[in-house]
Amino acid sequence: xSIPHVNKDDLTLxxxxxTFGIDMxxxxxxxxxxxxxxxxxxxxxxxxxxxxxxHAAYCWQSAFKYLWRWPxxxxxxxxxxxxxxxxxxxxxxxEKDSKYNSD
Length: 103
Fold this sequence. Notes:
The protein is mainly alpha-helical. Helices cover about 50% and strands about 10% of the residues. Strands 1-2-3 form a 3-stranded antiparallel sheet, with no helix packed on it. The protein starts with a strand and ends in an 8-residue tail after the last helix. The model has no long low-confidence stretch (mean pLDDT about 80).
């Protein structure tokens, strides 16, 4: 008889060669919210054809990620605050770029 192994990092229980539970690394519940589209796939699609560079792209995608996932997280308001933080940072970056700032 094998000894069950509980992995606290991904919330799985393994007994022999069978694993039960939620894989919090590869497929946590808040990643696809029971739809066929995962957040990371939507993020990839939204950036195709854009010419947003480096850190601005990171801020854009991070804000999107928090906005996508907040309804499915235990600390929903915290995710919305994080989203707002990344949007404010993105605005700050774009304000310094003449391409986006007509002043």
